[in-house]
Amino acid sequence: MKNKIKLKGRLKRYVQTSLYLGFLLVLVNLVVYLFSAPAGLVLTGFVLIYFIVVLLLQYYNRPVIMNEMVSFATQYGQVQKVLLRELEIPYAILDDEGHVIWTNEAFEDVVHKGKGYRKSITSLFPSITREKLPGEEEFTELDVAYEDSNYVARMRRISLKEMLESSDIVNAKEYEGFLIAFYLFDETALRIALQEVDDQSLAVGLLYLDNYDEALESIEEVRRSLLTALIDRKINKYIAALDGICKKIEKDKYMIVLRKKATESLRESRFDILEDVKTVNIGNEMAVTISIGLGLDGYTYAQNYEFARNAIDLALGRGGDQAVVKTPENITYYGGKSQQVEKNTRVKARVKAQALREIITSKENVLIMGHRFADVDSFGAAVGIHRIATTLERRAHIVLNDVSTSLKPMVDLMKSHEEYDDDTIIPSQQAVEYAGSNTVLVVVDVNKPSITECPELLRMCKSIVVLDHHRQGTESIENATLSYVEAYASSACEMVSEILQYIGESIRITAEEADCMYSGIMIDTDNFMTKTGVRTFEAAAFLRRNGADVTRVRKLFRENANEYKARADAVGQAEIYKNVFAISTCASEGLESPTIVGAQAANELLNIRGVKASFVLTEYQNQIFVSARSIDEVNVQVIMEKMGGGGHLSAAGCQFKDASIFEGIGMVKATLDKMLSEGELEID
């Protein structure tokens, strides 16, 4: 067999060099013949001897050379195999289905398997499924964990087609198989180092006292300095225990600097400082509450501080008494179990009223819109803003698409009024035509852009005003020229009623408009039973002085028999879950506005003794609407935010598609179970 092996390339030319030199001697011999024939004969003898010696050497040495080459190749392959077996990097060869074919010693040490292990690589690393193996791509890489170590797994495709095509024993013309070279690179130490660096990174926080002035006013003057000192001591001691720095920047504001590692303990304790501060009591009638905003994972210290500012704004906008953690990826909320304290001063309302007046007078047109499926509060607030715009001699339009049965009497009432033109109330398609640089858009009773009546208007109008009483969530209208969001207000109509009193002396509202706004306050407060304060009754009194009639309003909201029966059925079939949650469904057949009936049923369920929160699900327009209500012990806003919605501490809701009513009930129960297990909800 060795005789059939032929040399080629450089080695062949090297071995045949002596023959090439022999031919050169022949040429020299011919030249010598030209000068001397005897000398040429002598040289010819030497040339013949040279060729004989060279041919003999090649004939006898060729087998020796081939033997040495075969021996070297064999030893070289063995050396390669030994080196690969003893390679310090864990290495394995897999077939195209991910089964282990061969492993080296380092790989065997990592996975604690013997030399003959031939199972799928997925059995060792569950995250490496068949779909993640190299297919059409030549190279893949992914992070894997094994026991307490972290690795980067790199896999390279090795084609077998070319090798098998040259084989004499198999036909591999259509074979597309391949092997996979599998490497593991241990990054455990690197990950630990990176984690340590990340843990030591800066976290910036802002801590505000929500009701500092009100708490001080509730105690005698000589004790005020003591209350302030006790609060300072508690806050500083708490932050110092976390190895952080707390600096008072104003009388009721603190700046906090922490290591990111310390924020983990804050999250684990769910910011227990929120409840701890409330225990400070030296005779003050009102417990002190705080709000915290934390900024993490920014690219710069300045960005972390900006995150903290955004977070504290969210915490205050949601009513205070809570902590908000903001990172580039998400926002997390903690606390928020207290109702926001109503501000006795109306300075803010007066300032916002003047700012609204200036914005409206600077434009020619005014568009007013609320949320989708507008309710009485949304429409009433829009009517109030319409009165402001017309008094300031600006053309105003209320954007309204669908009119529910409960809203229809009010819409008909306003349309029949002589001061209202045919285009006062317009749909979204027509509103888009009025949008532009010379139009101001006023958004009432909503601050979440995705659920507004016409989200396109937010992009088309440069001047935007937001008036809302719902707590702010992660999604909010960010490009507003003027934002007036007060979570303590009972309704948007209450806020607009206050603004009307400061917008100018020339404003005179009609009895019909007063009825609309009075209705909004009455519905959102459940006939002045929930979320009412001094300013709520003052706003109602203002509307009564301007012609609002309680009897007319009551007649507007009388419901038909079908709605009454549907609400009664929803209350009657309610399930009491965990002894404190009432969960029910509301039928939508035969009802023009089933979501409103569902909300009414949720309010009714709170009258059952022991019920702390109620949830009523209604299927309407291929969606599931969830109405959530509570009295004071459960924050339903946080629950609904977990399901993609939002609202108030005591009144919230959410919507979702592609689910049945029974699946929706399961989602509500699963959310409640998860929040109870994680300590986000507490029930006695």
Automatic annotation (TrEMBL):
It comes from the Bacteria. Mn(2+) 1 binds at residues 371, 375, 445. The chain crosses the membrane at residues 14-35. GO terms for cellular component: plasma membrane. It is found in: Cell membrane. Keywords: Cell membrane, Hydrolase, Manganese, Membrane, Metal-binding, Transmembrane, Transmembrane helix. Residues 365-521 form the DDH domain. It catalyses: 3',3'-c-di-AMP + H2O = 5'-O-phosphonoadenylyl-(3'->5')-adenosine + H(+). Its EC number is 3.1.4.-. It is an enzyme of class 3 (hydrolase). GO terms for molecular function: hydrolase activity; metal ion binding; nucleic acid binding. Mn(2+) 2 binds at residues 377, 445, 469, 524. For phosphodiesterase activity, probably binds 2 Mn(2+) per subunit. Residues 599-660 form the DHHA1 domain. Its cofactor is Mn(2+). Belongs to the GdpP/PdeA phosphodiesterase family. Has phosphodiesterase (PDE) activity against cyclic-di-AMP (c-di-AMP). This is Cyclic-di-AMP phosphodiesterase. It comes from Parablautia muri.
